[in-house]
Design goal:
The structure holds 2 protein chains of 2 kinds.
Chain A lengths: L7 E5 L3 H9 L4 E4 L17 H13 L3 E6 L8 H13 L4 E4 L2 H10 L5 E3 L8 H11 L3 E3 L6 H10 L3 E8 L11 H6 L3 H4 L8 E6 L2 E6 L2 E7 L14 E3 L2 E3 L7 E3 L4 H6 L4 E4 L6 H19 L6 H7 L5 E2 L9
Parallel strand pairs in A: 1-2, 1-14, 2-3, 3-4, 4-5, 5-6, 6-7, 7-14, 13-15
Antiparallel strand pairs in A: 7-13, 8-9, 9-10, 11-12
Helix pairs in contact in A: 1-2, 1-10, 10-11
Chain B lengths: L6 E4 L8 H14 L4 E4 L8 H17 L3 E4 L8 H12 L4 E4 L14 E3 L8 H9 L2 E5 L6 H14 L2 E14 L4 H5 L18 E5 L4 E6 L2 E9 L4 H7 L3 E4 L6 H12 L5 H11 L5 E2 L1 H4 L11
Parallel strand pairs in B: 1-2, 1-11, 2-3, 3-4, 4-5, 5-6, 6-7, 7-11, 10-12
Antiparallel strand pairs in B: 7-10, 8-9, 9-10
Helix pairs in contact in B: 1-2, 4-5, 8-9
Classes of the chains: A alpha/beta, B alpha/beta.
Chain lengths: ~325, ~300
């Protein structure tokens, strides 16, 4: 558990094994989802059955860690019960909070489970104090996960204006679009983050050699072209190489991931409560090293010692990273 | 002036057209377009608003004189302090309905004030629609990515609340909104000193894949589909499902002819295939789709009639 004034480390788990790893590596809280379309990482082989979730929650609570269950896709018309059952089960299993995005589902959870702690998912893209106040006033939410379109200054201003907690992404995948408001994947493949919990799904990816080049496509659209033998990045739609007018390259975002580790002290000063690591789809080894490093960094910060930056840098060695919108470079 | 089975709504102009073109467009719309409602105002980028200030008032006045119902558009992504202030000011006027396209505005809405819900609000199911209807929403332009089965269920639920359901029936569809400006980015500029380069592309700047396939279009901080929605051939199915109005999104080309084709099709005066062809004749270079509703993906080509 976090002490007053310190930051809570919120870590991903896509499997029960990764869950235990995250807890043992020092996660203050773990977030995860049920193995169906109710959560935004609905990938084959990922996520938790009801029994696995109940076991995992017990494990976390014995180790003093919290469990936040993501039910953060937008329920399909005519099938709302699938989502309300996820919320009911989370409440019944003593989850510490559910992470929700849909208005109807927030309304249901607030009405049916008044004691259940509600967090607003990043998929709700609540990007300013008014949007956050709307969720707080109407549903009694206690925390909002901020979209990755804000600078540190904007986050500080939001925290001055609201009286609920904020959680921000610190490390891992990076959406360049406002989350929960993007249907690029739906347009190209028919699979949607909002409806299916899937973005740029592997089922629609193909790699083909063409004239000495390796071309990766998704939904038939060419996303990357590299010399054969080179490693081709996964064809995530918004990180592809395109042509726009005279411009050739990454129109939306480079194939980079988020690393805002160096901004931890500024985020703490901005009044943030929790730091979130993306990557429920990542391996146990990855989870272990990332969680362990960030936990050491947060402990150092809480004790007034300098954050060991070198260790965090090593996590992204060989990868290109960005601090996203936090540093105002998008302005 | 409802055209037979459907009301016709002209959505907000998404693109950064110069002031004189903006004024001409709305003048012709007022005088010649057989539409019921016009949503007007900047929904994409607050930096464009100062250019619109002078011509927005006269355009609204002219539309209302011509008997159109005017609805005020609002921003899709509100982050800055001045954007929140502008949203509050929209509600300070009370004579016109406001279309919200970001839930920020729900916190600013005066108690009991009626409003419309835009396509970038996530209305995917009946309880969400009902929640907003109880708060005063009178009309829902549904998210373009919804499949037909969901639209039919939502339209039925909407009828139960006595509110209308509208679909994005013509024009490039909004697929994403970002804090980053892509027009500025591809021109090597920063967002804060963007030189308003988005005004160079009347229908957005085409984004092609590395092998030259048309894919998307960028419009400042907004990303649109390359293909234009064209539901002119699907009106029987949409009427059967209980859809009450159609949204036509402004583009270059003969937009008045587009509104007329939809009006004739809505009134049942022309056959679906003829309606699609009349729209095609008005914008010969556009590629069409109805894929989100009826195909396996949003980019699916319009099936041959």
């Amino acid at each position: 558990m976090t002490s007053p004034g310190s930051l809570e480390l919120v870590c991903p788990a896509g499997t029960p094994a990764a869950f235990r790893t995250a807890v043992e590596a020092g996660a203050h809280a773990v977030y995860c989802g049920f193995n169906d379309e109710t959560n935004a990482r609905n990938f084959p082989g990922l996520n938790f059955s009801r029994a696995e979730m109940a076991d995992s929650i017990g494990f976390a609570h014995r180790h003093g860690a919290k469990v936040l269950i993501a039910v953060n896709t937008f329920p399909r018309a005519g099938a709302f019960e699938l989502w309300t059952r996820a919320v009911d089960d989370a409440a019944g299993m003593q989850a510490d909070a559910v992470i929700l995005a849909d208005l109807g589902l927030l309304d249901y959870a607030a009405t049916t489970h008044p004691a259940l702690r509600l967090h607003v998912s990043v998929q709700a893209a609540a990007a300013n104090a008014d949007a956050i106040a709307f969720y707080a006033r109407n549903f009694g939410v206690r925390r909002v996960v901020l979209p990755r379109v804000l600078s540190v200054q904007e986050i500080a201003a939001i925290n001055r204006d609201i009286d609920i907690e904020t959680e921000v992404f610190i490390f891992g995948g990076l959406c360049v679009m406002a989350e929960g408001r993007c249907s690029l994947s739906s347009y190209a493949t028919g699979k949607s983050p909002n409806m299916n919990g899937a973005c740029s799904p592997a089922s629609h990816v193909e790699y083909r050699e063409e004239g000495g080049d390796l071309v990766s496509r998704i939904g038939g659209f060419a996303i990357h072209r590299v010399k054969a033998g080179q490693a081709a990045p996964y064809p995530t739609l918004c990180k592809g190489s395109f042509e726009a007018g005279d411009y050739r390259g990454h129109v939306f975002e480079d194939p980079v991931s988020l690393d805002a580790a160096s901004l931890i002290p500024q985020l703490a000063a901005a009044g943030v409560t929790a730091l979130k690591i993306e990557g429920r789809q990542r391996s146990r080894a990855y989870t272990q090293s990332v969680v362990r490093s960030f936990r050491r960094a947060l402990d150092a910060l809480a004790a007034g010692r300098p954050v060991p930056a070198g260790e965090l840098r090593a996590l992204t060695e060989g990868q290109r990273t960005t601090s996203g919108a936090y540093n105002k470079t998008w302005r | 002036m409802t055209q037979g089975r459907f009301g016709l709504t002209v959505g907000p102009l998404l693109f950064n057209w110069p002031a004189d073109r903006f004024a001409d467009f709305y003048a012709r719309l007022a005088d010649e377009a057989p539409v019921d409602r016009v949503v007007i105002g900047e929904s994409v980028c607050s930096k464009r608003e100062p250019f619109r200030e002078e011509c927005l008032g006269p355009a609204i006045e002219r539309l209302e004189r011509a008997g159109k119902r005017v609805v005020l558009a609002s921003l899709t992504l509100v982050t800055l302090e001045r954007e929140r202030r502008a949203a509050r000011e929209l509600f300070a006027q009370t004579q016109r309905e406001v279309e919200i396209d970001d839930l920020t505005l729900m916190n600013l809405l005066p108690q009991g004030a009626p409003f419309a819900v835009g396509p970038m609000i996530n209305v995917y199911n009946e309880p969400t629609l009902g929640y907003l209807a109880r708060k005063g929403a009178r009309r829902f332009c549904l998210p373009p990515e919804l499949p037909f089965a969901s639209v039919a269920i939502l339209a039925r639920a909407a009828a139960g609340f006595g509110v209308g359901v509208e679909l994005w029936a013509y024009g490039r569809m909004p697929l994403a909104i970002s804090g980053r400006c892509y027009h500025a980015r591809v021109h090597g500029l920063s967002k804060d000193s963007c030189q308003f380069v988005c005004d160079r592309d009347a229908d957005g700047l085409a984004v092609r894949t590395a092998d030259g396939t048309d894919f998307l279009a960028i419009n400042g901080v907004q990303t649109l589909s390359h293909k234009y929605a064209n539901l002119a051939g699907d009106l029987d199915r949409l009427a059967g499902a209980g859809v009450t109005s159609l949204r036509l999104s402004p583009h270059s080309g003969d937009f008045i002819a587009v509104t007329r084709a939809f009006a004739r099709a809505a009134a049942g005066e022309i056959a679906p295939r003829e309606a699609v062809e009349q729209v095609r004749a008005a914008v010969p270079d556009a590629a069409f789709t109805n894929g989100f509703l009826f195909g396996d993906r949003g980019a699916a080509p319009l099936p041959a009639a």
